[in-house]
């Protein structure tokens, strides 16, 4: 046997040992008496790593581990088409009792924009976990000092106000449309310029290419504090503690748009399995790790499950779908 | 020197044994994923994201940045040895690097690329450490109109890569533009060439395109019996030392490449690919001019060492300034930077103007570790150049089977979608056919990267200006770029005319009878 052959043999043996080892560990983990979801739970993230949904799954994974809720959880990213590729994959996994898909406001718009064959009604609602809020900003030297100035400009000539934010049909776009509608401007007339994220929208704002920016509060918070951007309003129901910016409602505009994130299970699971998943998620949100997550990310704790969540979900689907359609995106 | 003091404190942090270990782990991992086609530093950092829960932020970011830099060092290895670039930033390196390898100069090519990557990384990191406000100012001068002008400029400047055969180059460019059009249009929401298939809504990912055309296409080409390893030349590996003659040519090329890379690091979606092509094109033109003036012969097409040196330096020079844009502005200009931004958010930090004040310790330790990581990578890559070259001693079937496996693995892991694998095979066949019929691949990639940038930015600029074309010429930067284009075009036209006249004169010279 030549040395080359020996090396190849050895490599092969090592690989085989590794595979067998991994299989043994896997079998051992799923062998105990607890439910399948308790021993191994999969988060489907219908977006790329690094986004908001991905963050929810990874923070959730951490809380499940730290709080000893689930022995082994993993995150699988299935990005594409506003989250509807991941949704379709979850629907195909019918009757899988140990899987949770992360979802939220953006997916409702995504389903309309992408003419998805599946909707959120095709999966099993488990819980709403947390909300964060949108902020409307202008550069520090902008002529718009208040939301009223911005509204006046929009009423005068909506095309003359370039508004930059995230992708088409996402929360940033929807909020722009809701504001326009409430102040009597045709949402389709809004000059909305989509960017691939808050960072790109930010440079366009600071280089005065766009006049107004809309994004999640965290994306702009640093620039607001540094005095480079001026925050005009946030999209929350009530003033958010720690954020010294008035809400739209306080300024007479009826546009509330929480960017909520929640989890859904595949269709066709039994009532007990659904109960078990709800219990797991409830335990997860009670861990200190999750409380720390909420604080670090400045998320609002809006935990809801069961009938309460279903009610919220169906109202939200109606509302967001209507706005998206009004924007001419369907 | 305030920055120097900060940096020294940073070095004190970064040189702790623990942080050195994380940096070493990072550069090893980065090099590994950089070498393998399909796996890139963005995927490696994404897989490492969960460790942010266990590690302190300084250690985690030292490791992430080391992976990022490592990827840019490692990507050229497979490009040079097997014509299968590990990441899209090494496509330009592959063109001449592979030719060098075929002529038995693989160790020299690898060494040139390692030193080039080192020079680019060190210079750009220095720039960020001492002049980050200037970099941020530069980034903020750019709006949609300026990006569009830059894309137009880049299209024309990279045409040097296309110019061997105009028709074939244009065919390749069009193939690239068509590929880049597939998907839902981000500005209007309209579907283009999706045939109603949700898998196509996001378009083709750059990873799938690169891996399919360059790696799978090459594997099929080799399997089809047209591969270039016919002679034993590939297997000869000598010292990695560059002779004085090589150094005289590579040194200015490294510097020019770095100059191209620096500004592009802060430009979103320009990525690290555009400057590599610009650097490649420039070197090629310079070599031709040098040869025309009776200097050293133009070796482009036959393994010109400048063609390896400049793109490598340009590619890794973007890494430093990209880190500057990320830290100082929260602007991710590459896929890897985008995931690092997410990691910052997981720690409850927001990169931006206040990061240097609030988390100064972390920022300066990170910057110091970038220097350390670059040195580690040079030390790691240079002695390994001849060793890597010995990779070619592995019998071809094993070698190319391995490439195929890793390519498929990388493409599948990115989105866990079977559809991506089918697309990879389809585009791989396209890549094979293009090789078979001598259609160049580089223009496809240029079109795929630059096409969407040009389109999106043009439409954004026009939307902001409500359809008024004047908005495109509204700033000093765009005007300067267009002026540059006009000057370059003018010079080229004059040169062409002069060359044509000279050619005519030469043709008529041997026939004195005609003059009478």
Automatic annotation (TrEMBL), chain A:
Entries under CDD domains matching the protein: PBP2_Bug_TTT
Query: Which Pfam family is an annotated match for this chain, by its short name?
Result: TctC
Q: Where is the signal peptide?
A: 1-27
- Matches recorded under Gene3D superfamilies: Bordetella uptake gene, domain 1, Periplasmic binding protein-like II
Write out the coiled-coil annotation as residue ranges: none
Which UniProt keywords are given for this protein, alphabetically ordered?
Signal
Family the UniProt entry places it in: Belongs to the UPF0065 (bug) family.
Q: What is this protein called?
A: Putative tricarboxylic transport membrane protein
* The organism of origin for this protein: Marinactinospora thermotolerans DSM 45154
Q: What is the organism lineage in this UniProt record?
A: Bacteria, Bacillati, Actinomycetota, Actinomycetes, Streptosporangiales
TrEMBL record, chain B:
Alphabetical UniProt keywords: Membrane, Transmembrane, Transmembrane helix
Give me the segments passing through the membrane: 20-49, 61-82, 110-135, 147-164, 170-188, 200-223, 322-344, 364-389, 409-430, 437-454, 469-494
Matching entries from PANTHER family are given as: TRICARBOXYLIC TRANSPORT PROTEIN (PTHR35342:SF5)
Q: Which source organism does the UniProt entry give?
A: Marinactinospora thermotolerans DSM 45154
Would the keyword Transmembrane be found if you checked this record's keyword annotation? yes
Which Pfam families would you find in this protein's record? TctA
Sequence ranges assigned to domain DUF112 in this UniProt record = 20-445
Name the record gives this protein: Putative tricarboxylic transport membrane protein
List the InterPro entries: DUF112_TM (IPR002823)
């Amino acid at each position: 046997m030549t040395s080359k052959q020996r090396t190849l043999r050895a490599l092969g043996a090592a690989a085989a040992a590794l595979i067998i080892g991994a299989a043994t560990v896997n079998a051992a983990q799923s062998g105990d008496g607890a439910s399948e979801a308790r021993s191994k739970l999969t988060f489907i993230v219908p977006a790329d790593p690094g986004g908001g949904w991905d963050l929810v799954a990874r923070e959730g994974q951490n809380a499940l581990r730290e709080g000893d809720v689930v022995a082994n959880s993993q995150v699988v990213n299935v990005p594409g088409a506003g989250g509807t590729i991941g949704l379709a994959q979850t629907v195909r996994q019918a009757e899988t009792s140990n899987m949770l898909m992360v979802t939220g406001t953006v997916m409702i718009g995504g389903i309309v924009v992408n003419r998805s064959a599946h909707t959120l009604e095709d999966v099993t609602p488990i819980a709403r976990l947390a909300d964060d809020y949108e902020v409307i900003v202008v550069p520090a030297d902008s002529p718009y000092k208040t939301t009223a100035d911005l509204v006046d400009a929009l009423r005068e000539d909506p095309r003359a106000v370039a508004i930059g934010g995230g992708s088409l049909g996402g929360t940033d776009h929807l909020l722009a449309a809701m504001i326009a509608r409430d102040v009597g401007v045709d949402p389709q007339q809004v000059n909305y310029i989509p960017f691939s994220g808050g960072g790109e929208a930010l440079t366009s704002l600071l280089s005065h290419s766009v006049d107004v920016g809309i994004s999640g509060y965290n994306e702009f918070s640093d620039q607001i504090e540094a005095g480079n951007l001026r925050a005009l309003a946030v999209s929350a129901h009530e003033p958010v503690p720690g954020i010294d910016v008035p809400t739209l409602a306080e300024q007479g505009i009826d546009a509330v748009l929480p960017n909520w994130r929640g989890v859904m299970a595949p269709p066709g699971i039994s009532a007990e399995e659904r109960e078990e998943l709800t219990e797991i998620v409830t335990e997860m949100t009670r861990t200190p790790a999750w409380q720390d997550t909420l604080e670090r990310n400045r998320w609002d704790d809006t935990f809801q499950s069961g009938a309460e969540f279903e009610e919220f979900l169906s109202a939200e689907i109606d509302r967001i779908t209507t706005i998206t359609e009004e924007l001419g995106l369907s | 020197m305030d920055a120097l003091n900060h940096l020294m404190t940073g070095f004190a942090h970064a040189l702790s044994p623990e942080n050195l270990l994380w940096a070493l782990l990072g550069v090893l991992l980065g090099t590994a994923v950089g070498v393998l086609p399909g796996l890139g530093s963005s995927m490696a950092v994404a897989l490492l994201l969960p460790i942010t829960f266990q590690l302190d932020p300084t250690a985690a970011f030292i490791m992430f940045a080391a992976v990022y830099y490592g990827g840019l060092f490692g990507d050229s290895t497979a490009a040079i040895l097997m014509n299968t670039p590990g990441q899209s930033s090494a496509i330009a390196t592959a063109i001449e690097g592979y030719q060098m390898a075929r002529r038995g100069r693989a160790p020299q090519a690898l060494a040139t690329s390692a030193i080039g990557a080192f020079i680019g990384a060190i210079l750009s990191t220095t720039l960020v450490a001492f002049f980050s406000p200037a970099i941020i100012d530069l980034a903020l001068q750019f709006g949609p109109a300026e990006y569009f002008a830059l894309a137009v400029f880049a299209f024309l400047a990279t045409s040097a890569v296309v110019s061997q055969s105009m028709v074939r180059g244009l065919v390749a460019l069009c193939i690239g533009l068509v590929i880049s059009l597939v998907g839902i249009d981000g500005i209007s929401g309209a579907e283009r060439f999706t045939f109603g298939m949700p898998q196509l809504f996001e378009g083709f990912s750059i990873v799938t395109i690169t891996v399919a055309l360059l790696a799978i296409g090459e594997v099929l080409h080799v399997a089809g019996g047209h591969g270039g390893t016919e002679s034993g030349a590939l297997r000869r590996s000598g010292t990695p030392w560059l002779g004085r003659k090589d150094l005289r040519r590579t040194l200015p090329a490294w510097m020019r490449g770095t100059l191209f890379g620096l500004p592009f690091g802060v430009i979103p979606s320009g990525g690290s690919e555009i400057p590599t092509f610009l650097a490649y094109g420039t070197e090629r033109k310079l070599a031709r001019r040098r040869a025309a003036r009776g200097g050293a012969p133009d070796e482009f097409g036959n393994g010109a060492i400048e063609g390896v040196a400049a793109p490598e330096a340009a590619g890794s020079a973007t890494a430093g300034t990209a880190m500057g844009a990320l830290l100082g502005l929260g602007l991710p200009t590459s896929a890897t930077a985008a995931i690092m931004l997410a990691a910052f958010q997981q720690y409850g930090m927001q990169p931006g103007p206040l990061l240097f004040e609030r988390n100064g310790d972390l920022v300066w330790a990170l910057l110091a570790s970038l220097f350390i990581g670059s040195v580690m990578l040079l030390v790691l890559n240079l002695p390994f150049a001849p060793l890597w070259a010995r990779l070619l001693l592995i019998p071809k079937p094993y070698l190319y089977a391995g490439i195929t496996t890793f390519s498929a693995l990388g493409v599948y892991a990115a989105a866990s979608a079977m559809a991506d694998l089918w697309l990879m095979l389809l585009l791989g066949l396209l890549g094979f056919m293009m090789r078979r019929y001598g259609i160049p691949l580089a223009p496809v990639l240029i079109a795929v990267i630059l096409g969407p940038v040009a389109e999106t930015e043009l439409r954004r600029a026009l939307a902001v200006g409500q359809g008024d074309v004047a908005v495109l010429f509204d700033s000093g930067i765009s005007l300067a770029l267009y002026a540059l284009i006009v000057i370059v075009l003018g010079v080229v036209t004059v040169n062409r005319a002069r060359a044509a006249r000279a050619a005519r004169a030469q043709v008529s010279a041997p026939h004195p009878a005609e003059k009478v």
